[in-house]
Amino acid sequence: MSDPLPAPPHPLAGLAPPPDPGPSLLSLLFCPPANMFEAFPREAYEVPVFRPRRMPSLLVVVSDPDAVRRVMLDEVADFPRHAQSDEIFSAMFGEGLLGVTGETWRRHRRILAPAFGPRSIAALAPVMTDAAAAWVERWAALAGAAPVDMAAEMKGVGLKIVSDTMFSAGADELTALANGALSVLQDELRLGLPDALPLLGPLIRQRKYARVRREIVRFDAAIDRMIGERERDPAAAPEDLLSRLMAARDGEDGAGLTAKEVRDEVVTIFEAGHETTASALTFAWYLLAHHPAEEARLQAELDGVLGGRLPTAADVPSLPYTRMVIEETMRLYPPVPTIAARTARRDCEICGVPVRAGQRVFVTPWIIHRHRALWDAPERFDPERFSPERSAGRPRFAYLPFGAGPRVCIGAGFAMMEATLVLAALAQRFRARMLPGHRVRLRAQLTLGPIGGLPMTLEARRPG
């Protein structure tokens, strides 16, 4: 699986898991690969619960949908997030929604929920369309010229959308600061076995967290200035997400977020709001480049519905195939390839496999989305899997692009609206093609992406 994306005519053949027994988990933990799933043998993609043979006490990976429901929902109190996962998320997001637990998390979720409801997302859709329009103009100048890095392009449009929805206009400084800080987060928080050692590990991790905090100081200061300006003159504040966060109140006690909590939610939304959607869009372009029939069907839908104009939120229900392309892309390339580890609080069995108290339990969309018991020909790109007819009867916990359970991604609706509008706006006017002979390798850690970017050439097309 070190080269999971070989060139056509079989671009997905290398996505199949490696033969048993696979690499040594111990060696991979000492020298962690960019793609963590190189550690897992074929067996992990075939059994309901996988426990590595060489180190059976290290972890278990749960893929059976009923067992996933048990861990993530029905018995979630018995499988809390692992303490080291809490450390990482706290270092990244402070008191943001992803960094807190318990009653603090429940309070933040209540306060934030209205800002990510359907009505609020629809109100933000014009900002997404405007950003997509800016990228149409950008690509019009680039088509037929030198290759572009598709990963960087999708990250760029995602940053513009999250920046403009969060801060309205004039957010260039904040966007640049956030981009730099979040890059450091990704680099510093790549953990291996030394980070988990009983005595040395905590010291190594704390040094990493300190570097992360130092990097984010300038971003903090810029956010604090903006919050202070809006507090001094609320009437002049624009109607964007930052204003909504500052004005939001808990429906139970009427309390709002502190300035630090607002800042930490801003960091959370910046990271979750652009990195994951950019990942999905990047791999959508890759898959469409390798599947001309599916690309043609997508373009036919866009031509018929849009006729060359930019898409709006009102068009989304009329673009079912566009949505299916995005959903199937996130099945093959889940933007968050593994959910934060859980810890078993007591001895138990999951699908007949013994799990001892304190053992780490992983729910891994990358493996679940390719599991032989759950998907027919799981390496094949087939958007029709997500048609209403073929989706009927599919277990809810067989598809987890936004996580599962109480902590399911609060921004799922925002992300789907953004991905649909951006892909629709660009795919009706452009095709993207791979560079001949380019080898693509995956980085699968906190989020999924191509190592070194994804160079592609752009070709202009006329709608219709």
Report what the structure shows.
This protein is an alpha+beta fold and 464 residues long. The strands form 4 sheets. The chain has a 4-stranded mixed β-sheet. Helix 5 packs parallel to helix 17 (412-427). The protein has helices at 25-30, 65-74, 83-93, 102-112, 118-142, 150-167, 172-188, 193-196, 200-215, 217-232, 241-247, 259-290, 292-306, 320-332, 365-368, 388-391, 412-427; strands at 49-50, 59-62, 148-149, 342-343, 348-350, 353-355, 360-363, 430-434, 442-444, 448-450, 455-460. 48% of the residues lie in helices and 8% in strands. The protein is globular. The protein has one domain (13-460): Cytochrome P450 (Cytochrome p450, Orthogonal Bundle), CATH 1.10.630.10.
Summarize this structure briefly:
The chain is built from 17 helices and 11 strands.
Estimated helix fraction: 40-55%
| Tally of separate helices | 17
Provide the β-strand percentage band: 5-15%
How are strands sequenced across the largest beta sheet? Answer: 1-2-7-4
User: In the CATH classification, which architecture applies?
Assistant: Orthogonal Bundle
Order of helices and strands: HEEHHHHEHHHHHHHHHEEEEHHHEEEE
Secondary-structure content class? alpha+beta
Low-confidence region ranges: 1-14
In round numbers, the mean pLDDT is 84
E-strand count = 11
Largest sheet: 4 strands, mixed
Assigned CATH class: Mainly Alpha
The CATH homologous superfamily is termed Cytochrome P450
Cα-based radius of gyration, to the nearest Å:
22 Å
- How many discrete structural domains? 1
